[in-house]
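Need residues for this backbone.
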């Protein structure tokens, strides 16, 4: 284990002990669960971005490109209070693959997700069971033909590591500005290796392992330049929803 990774491992372990000690001292569990918004991830520093892994079809022979970087552009971050920097997920979505792999693999995808968080006391997961919605503050740019090809993905702590809860991202703005998107946790669809799971179950929200966003241009046969700004990902309740959420279950998935 590299020194920086080991240091992060120890920091997570220490934070786990401190957080749980604080909960005991506050006597949490003897009162009603908190409904306050829970920030899962922010994207304001290079350290924030190190918590995420990236990947695209170029890793297996495709031709798409991917950049995941800190964005300190005042123009693109206009309207974000107290956040001079955000994350920028950008590149070229391409459907073609290397000539020798045509007909063998499929191109047209890119994405990022939070890394698992091991510690001395087991893997650290987030408990969002007291919250109804996943909230994302995003900025959509790039080719408008790709706007319906973004998905948000949640992995919970379960026996099948290939299980993924998925929902399409529906953007309302088309001017490149920031917007809040709220998705009920109950509306996520369970998939496995990109295929819809026939027998849907309730999401195990007590232990959320990873959260990420994927762009699946190959599903819709759309290529072009993509550009997505990310400010934060939170778990919230109805009283914190500032925009009408999508209340219908989305049957679409990333197959």
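Answer:
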């Amino acid at each position: 284990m590299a020194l920086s990774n080991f240091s992060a491992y120890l920091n997570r372990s220490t934070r786990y002990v401190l957080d749980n000690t604080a909960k005991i001292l506050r006597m949490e569990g003897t009162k009603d669960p908190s409904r306050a918004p829970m920030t899962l991830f922010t994207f304001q520093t290079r350290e924030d971005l190190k918590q995420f892994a990236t990947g695209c079809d170029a890793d297996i022979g495709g031709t798409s490109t991917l950049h995941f970087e800190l964005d300190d552009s005042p123009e693109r971050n206009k309207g974000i209070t107290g956040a001079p920097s955000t994350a920028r997920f950008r590149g070229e979505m391409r459907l073609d693959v290397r000539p020798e792999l045509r007909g063998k693999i499929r191109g047209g995808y890119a994405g990022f997700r939070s890394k698992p968080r091991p510690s001395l006391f087991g893997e650290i997961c987030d408990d969002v069971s007291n919250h109804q919605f996943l909230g994302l503050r995003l900025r959509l740019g790039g080719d408008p033909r790709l706007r319906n090809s973004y998905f948000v993905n949640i992995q919970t702590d379960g026996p099948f590591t290939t299980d993924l809860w998925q929902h399409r991202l529906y953007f309302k703005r088309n001017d490149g500005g920031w917007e809040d998107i709220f998705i009920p946790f109950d509306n996520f669809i369970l998939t496995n290796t990109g295929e819809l799971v026939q027998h849907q179950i309730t999401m195990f929200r007590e232990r959320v392992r990873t959260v990420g966003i994927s762009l699946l241009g190959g599903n819709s046969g759309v290529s072009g330049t993509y550009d997505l700004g990310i400010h934060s990902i939170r778990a919230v309740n109805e009283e914190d929803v500032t925009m009408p959420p999508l209340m219908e279950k989305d049957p679409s998935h990333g197959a």
